Automatic annotation (TrEMBL):
This is Outer membrane protein assembly factor BamA. InterPro entries: Bac_surfAg_D15 (IPR000184), BamA/TamA_POTRA (IPR010827), D15-like (IPR039910), OM_assembly_BamA (IPR023707), POTRA (IPR034746). The gene is bamA. It comes from Sphingomonas panacis. Pfam families: Omp85 (PF01103), POTRA (PF07244). Part of the outer membrane protein assembly complex, which is involved in assembly and insertion of beta-barrel proteins into the outer membrane. Keywords: Cell outer membrane, Membrane, Repeat, Signal, Transmembrane, Transmembrane beta strand. Part of the Bam complex. Belongs to the BamA family. The lineage of its organism: Bacteria, Pseudomonadati, Pseudomonadota, Alphaproteobacteria, Sphingomonadales.
Amino acid sequence: MPPAPATGAAVVVSDPNAKKILTLRVEGSQRIEPETVLSYTRLRVGVAYNNELLDQAIKDLLASDLFADVSISGVESGNIVLRVRENPIINRVILEGNKRLKEDKITKEIKLKPRQIFTRTAVRQDVARIVELYRRQGRFAAAIEPKMVTLDQNRVDIIFEINEGPKSKVRQINILGNEVFSDKALRGQMATKEARLTTLLSSNTSYDQDRLAYDQQKMRQFYLTNGYADFRVTSAVAELTPDKKDFIITYVVEEGKRYKFGDVTVDSDIRDFDGKKVAAGLSIKKGDWYDAKKVEDTVDSLNQSAGLVGYAFADTNPEFNRDKDTLTMGINFHIAEAKRSYVERINVTGNTQTQDKVIRREIRLAEGDAFNSFQVKRSQDRINSLGYFQDKFEIKQSQGSAPDRVVLDANVEEKSTGELSLSVGYSSLENFIIQASITQRNFRGKGQELRASVNYSSYSKSVNLGFTEPYLFNKNIAIGGDLFRRDYNAFNFSGSDRQTTYTQVSTGFQIRAGVPLTEYWSLAGRYGLTYDQVGLNGQYFNSDGSCNVLAAGSYLCQAIGNRWTSSVGYSLIFDSLNSRLRPTAGQKFSLSQDFAGLGGDVRYVRTRVDATKYKNLGAGFIGSLHVEGGYIFSLEGKKPAGVDKIRITDRFYLGEPDFPGFDIRGVGPRVTRTPYTTDATGKQILVTDKNSIVDDALGGNKYYVGRLEVQIPLGSGARELGLRPSIYVQAGALWGVTKPVATANFPTTIDPVTGRATVQPQVTPVLDSTSGKPLFAVPATDGANAGLQTICAVGYSASATTPCVGSSVNNAVTSSTAPFLEQFLGNSGAPRISVGAGVNWNSPFGPLRIDIAYALKKVKGDDTKLVTFNVGTQF
């Protein structure tokens, strides 16, 4: 800014030889009025002047930054003429050579702008600013050369020619004075890394002055957590190599002696706190190595404990008693006197769509209640679990109108809760998938959920409509319902072809209701009515319409039929998770039972238990333990031998995607049919090609699964991409069905010469579709009826009601089934175990999940699978 113009006050010149200004003129000014020029000086007509006053006038005009040159004439005559040359106006500011720094990042930092007055001082300052920007990026060799292009009308273009230079790396980090911990161990604590091949992709190898201070703090924190309370960094020097390409950083440290905790006491001025009892429960114990992090955690823990009993602004100060002779650090935690706090006001702001009541009903405190920090945290978790607002929402607390009053501020930032999507994807389970869905999780801003979806793939189709009201009539009662139609095709492989075995079409509805019992316990009830239509593919039927047991197996033939399932059920749920979307702490338990038989054709009791616990392991790692199990008990009467009381469509199934390492329905009871073939010597052997073996999963009436998983933290960039990797180990089993009756009994012959046993095809008579009697073929020697089929062993009859006429001896019509080995496998409660790693990715193509899991332990018959994935594309 130019200096303020002279005030025009009278100037007294004491020089006896001074002359008076007779006339005063300004020459050379173009944009600036002469009066404005004179206002920056103390020269006035009639004022006495000398050389000192004239010199000061020139200095004042140049200091205004408005003029490039100023001169004065007429000094001898008193007719003073001020000749000025104005600074030019900037036409453009041009940046050349900048590639690593975008133009907008530079232009917002520099002061020179178009239509401003050019000054060399401003140019020098902007050069310094640009250099500093490059140094922040670690480019200390950057050079800026300003140039000026003169234009007409006293205008100029300012050009900054930028030579960015290479990025200055940290070539070496030297540490002097350390004896207890190695250089490598200390460098590992630092954010700055030495430039090596192993750190080629790291951005922390560039020099950053702010990071230098951070690294000193990290070193100090490392020593303090290991007992070295006297540690200090006495010197930290970063030297730039002569070529300005690299830095060499040298730290000089003093480690000092290692301390242990001495006496640890708590001194409380709050009457509700008994210092001795509180001290006994602290994690810090006398004789342990001193750890500054434990001290900080203890302070936080004591403040939180005070918050639990209503002291929102409790202040805990650790008082240290260092004994250098015994090398102990005694600590007294002094809890200052505080008043019990009460909630004065709860402010809910930021919600534009969601109604206030939807948020307030999740807050576990009311205005006027005693403050409780646990309830504040619980309220925060419940609001986060709604999924209506941006992550990392916090309830802020501030001082109210009095020292014992607290104001809670719930400032939310809403996010989209409506989803309208059309997805096309590929699944290793169902090949190509088309899915269309519309969901509104906060319908009308009332927290209601409305959803509709349509799914179509080669082997399954479904339509689902649902609605949930979480607070019926503003009471804490949830109610909802679903209408659905699901078509499912079970499958197996014949050769390399995937073929349908049985089809299940389910149509029905379910209504649900739930009420909380306590803060964490809730009870939910439901009623469902489903009509199931189960059929087999056409290849499994005989010509008379009956089920071909040899082709389908008795277990599939038994499943055919239409039935109603009317069931009532309940779930008892405990939920203390800190988030229902992405939990990192807490636990959840549920016990569910469904009773089928309230009318309908099916009668059973299905029981399931499910429990999960999450724990923050530190450093961003999240551990979880999940266990579940189930059992179906039939209420139906006795069944024939080989027939299970629970139908195949009502059983549990286990495998991909719930059990990585195993294929879809790859765990548990199954029937396999392995065909026979012959080797090069003519010996009959079983085929080994997996795709030639028929494998029918039967499901089970009992199951259990346990999973131990650790989520691995990633950098901020990977988190922004939506990457969430994890490693896990899983164990489980599925069993408990009746062994089905053998499908076929193939005759075996023994070669009298070689002694080889050969399993022969099974030959069965073909029956007439009308009478059910065996069919015979008239031989070719019978002229009239040659080749025709009849129910007569001798002679011919065109129907079952006409007598056999003639004397021809007919041949029985038979069908032949190629021999196979049928085995009932996998019906064991022995644990199957797999280990694996997986990653969830919110990719541009839609949600993607990839698992690589290896089955460490399996039971004969289980189908394993190493890699599974599921991906969808949204458009």
